[in-house]
Design goal:
The complex is a heterodimer of chains A (366) and B (342). Chain A is built from 16 helices and no strands. Chain A has 366 residues and is an all-alpha fold. In chain A, α3 packs parallel to α8. Chain B has a domain of 226 residues. In chain B, 71% of the residues lie in helices and 4% in strands. In chain B, β3 and β4 form a beta hairpin. In chain B, α4 runs antiparallel to α5. Chain B starts with a helix and ends in a 20-residue tail after the last helix. The chains are: A mainly alpha (366), B mainly alpha (342). Chains A and B meet through α5, α6, α13, α15 and α16 of A and α4, α5, α12 and α14 of B.
């Protein structure tokens, strides 16, 4: 018998976790002598109060959708891919190499090529941890952590020593050709006569991210591969009994995961920066963990959670600008969300389950 | 120790001796600096060893060290006493250890996710509180005098200075570090003794391999695991305090800079063995020292970029994990919450 109805499991537990995380964050703000309500109003005003704020919120959310989906796809195969950071960084390298060295006369051509390059590089970076997990049982969490650091060191070297234009002091690549620049959401809307979000980095990648949500949903719940991924995640022995190869599915799930993380690069590297800079990912790979946990590994949940974190990110920036609260507050909130929705899940769930059981008993009279 | 374990130690020793023979002054400087860089890695590695030997995975070593570095530096600055700072550092790390214990033991949550959360919690809170308290962009004010752990000259260091072999080894390399360096070095034999020569150690190892058997013997799994997690807090606390009040003079945002993860790598490299942990963390500290001494190391015609030296601990660990050079097998019940049978 189910201990509690599905809606409670899917909506109520994450909401309560979120409220707990927010409450503790409010206490932290109080402890440093600021007003939580005032902080919230600055954040809402800065992130959602204008189309300018929304432009940034959607830009950040786009990053988090990709990294959140990446964590979720791996999670369905019961693999914890903590390497989104490194995979997204490598995706950025793929985008930069494609845009700098391939003749791409129009963004309409550059976008699919860059997407392919980003996904390929991201997937390649996930491949070694995947094959080591599948074939040799090396713990994927540890290997993906190691690969984050190796990626950071590799990119540092590549940007400083190889991709940096002659005479430039900046550890960054040259600018990408102007014709590969992605249209921003504000330009797209302006072409149909709507004035929205000028000078914001939100670009056409947001639509790609929404499409990715739909495709991941189809993949996980409507395809044979998705079924195999979920079956492996549920029980390895059961999957083997059903004729599913754990090695094959582990590797495929991680390739998709790494590819999704890598695709983030078309937003931040191609869409926003227009060149590859040092530490371009800025922790978005790790926020993907919070987003996937919060969204219960479902693409729709991830979409909402990514919006929430986009809001927090943009709001946090505004907070640092207008108040004396540093933007690290967002890191604290992120940590608390991960803690409550991921690690202390049972703390929220167990009392709730007891509550629902008690309610059912009193209603049924049995 | 087995042959392959001796081999690692011998290789590390050979590297040092070759270096000393090739360039005495530089080698002494490099090895000395490695000894100063090693304690945070070694202490964090041993911290992880207790926790993981008891079946609790801990990828939050980094966060605990960071929190400890911050609380230690803050209290050392406010009181002007490094020892009080150390106590505060241990306290800071202990609080996060308790959170990890609650999540992974009491509420049987995902230990890896809890570790990730702890790392972010420390990264955020230290800057948030630091900025609020000192308004220096997340730094603490620089520590001077008694607020820092000072170098100690070991007894007879002056008298033995001119004795061949022993002189350079004892007076130059071993002497002249701060107290916590010796604490870290002593922690190795103590850990070995506790784990392999005491009843507590036997039970601790058993609870990481087969908690049900420990439970059947009437020993509390929960209590053993909490003890291990608390020891982990104690050791990461000392590690963080050393970082902020021994190695550096104050706290800087994100000052652990991945050391918690290098320690984690060292733990795998060391196959969860205390003496091997010493060898592994010394090797990794040596790599760090070389990367600092020679930003662009030239060996023959090849220039090795410092980025490669920085990544080498991680690359070596992946190779070890892959099992091509002797397999690393973690404690069997690691990462799994224990559910008592009813």
């Amino acid at each position: 018998m189910e201990k509690m109805p599905k809606w409670a499991d899917v909506i109520l537990t994450p909401l309560i976790s979120l409220v707990l995380a927010m409450a503790i964050s409010a206490l932290v703000i109080l402890a440093i002598g600021e007003s939580p309500l005032e902080a919230l109003s600055v954040m809402v005003e800065g992130a959602l109060g204008s189309s300018y704020g929304w432009g940034f919120t959607l830009y950040y959310a786009t990053n988090f959708i990709f990294t959140g989906l990446a964590v979720a796809v791996a999670y369905h195969a019961s693999l914890f891919n903590i390497g989104g950071e490194g995979q997204a960084a490598m995706g950025g390298l793929g985008v930069a190499l494609a845009l700098l060295y391939l003749p791409l006369p129009h963004w309409g051509l550059a976008l699919p090529v860059a997407m392919l390059a980003a996904a390929l590089f991201g997937a390649a970076w996930a491949f070694i941890p995947a094959i080591l997990q599948a074939k040799r049982g090396s713990h994927i969490v540890i290997t993906t952590i190691m690969f984050n650091f190796i990626a950071a060191a590799a990119l540092n070297y590549i940007l400083v020593s190889l991709l940096r234009p002659v005479g430039s002091m900046d550890p960054a690549s040259a600018r990408f050709p102007a014709e590969t620049n992605l249209p921003s959401l504000s330009e797209i809307l302006a072409s149909v006569g709507i004035l929205w979000g000028r000078n914001t980095p939100a670009n056409v990648t947001f639509l790609v991210a929404v499409l990715a949500c739909i495709l991941v949903w189809l993949l996980i719940w409507r395809t044979r591969l998705g079924f195999e991924i979920r079956a492996l995640g549920r029980s390895e022995r059961g999957a083997i009994y059903a004729g599913i190869s754990p090695v094959r599915i582990t590797v495929i799930a991680m390739l998709i995961s790494g590819g999704l993380a890598g695709m983030m690069a078309i937003n931040n590297v191609m869409g926003e920066a227009g060149r590859l800079v040092l530490n371009a990912v800025e922790g978005a790979g790790f926020i993907g963990i919070a987003v996937a946990l919060m969204g219960r590994n479902h693409p729709f949940g991830i979409f909402l959670a990514a919006l929430l974190f986009g809001f927090l990110y943009q709001g946090g920036g505004e907070l640092a600008l207008w108040t004396s609260i540093p933007r690290e507050l967002i890191v604290v909130i992120q940590a608390l969300v991960i803690l409550f929705t991921g690690a202390l899940d049972n703390m929220v769930r167990m009392p709730l389950e007891r509550l629902f059981l008690a309610a059912r008993r009193s209603r049924g009279g049995a | 120790m087995k042959l392959r374990e001796w081999l690692t130690a011998i290789i590390v020793l050979a590297i040092c001796l070759t270096w000393v023979a090739a360039d005495y002054a530089a080698a002494m400087q490099g090895i000395n600096s490695a000894l100063r860089l090693m304690p945070p890695l070694l202490l964090a590695c041993l911290a992880g060893l207790y926790s993981e030997r008891a079946g609790v995975f801990d990828i939050g070593l980094e966060g605990k060290m960071l929190m400890s570095a911050f609380t230690a530096a803050s209290v050392a600055f406010l009181t002007g006493n490094a020892w009080l700072g150390l106590i505060a550092g241990i306290g800071g790390a202990m609080v996060l250890s308790l959170v990890h214990g609650l999540a992974s033991i009491t509420f049987r949550g995902n230990q890896l996710i809890s570790g990730v959360a702890i790392n972010f919690l420390a990264a955020g809170l230290t800057v948030l509180i630091g900025q609020n308290a000192f308004a220096l962009g997340g730094r603490t004010p620089p520590l001077v005098g008694e607020a820092r752990f000072q170098a100690i000259t070991l007894p007879f260091a002056g008298a033995l200075r001119d004795v061949p072999v022993i002189g350079p080894l004892y007076s130059v390399l071993l002497s002249g570090h701060s107290a916590l360096v010796y604490v870290a070095l002593l922690a190795v034999p103590i850990t070995w003794w506790v784990l392999f020569r005491t009843r507590f150690g036997l039970r601790l190892r058993a609870v990481g391999e087969n908690p049900a058997s420990v439970d059947t013997a009437g020993v509390s799994v929960t209590r053993l695991r909490y003890t291990a997690v608390a020891i982990c807090g104690l050791l990461t606390g000392i590690a963080g305090a050393y970082l902020a009040t021994g190695l550096s003079a104050g706290f800087v945002k994100d000052m652990t800079a991945g050391r918690g993860f290098i320690a984690l790598a060292a733990l795998i490299f060391a196959r969860w063995q205390p003496w091997q942990a010493l060898v592994a963390t010394f090797l990794f500290a040596l790599l760090e020292a070389v990367a600092i001494l020679y930003p662009n190391l030239t060996v023959g015609a090849i220039t090795i970029p410092s980025a490669f030296m920085n990544a080498l601990p991680y690359i070596l660990t992946v190779i070890i994990l892959a099992g091509f050079v002797g397999r690393a097998i973690p404690p069997r019940a690691g990462g799994e919450p224990y559910v008592k049978e009813r």
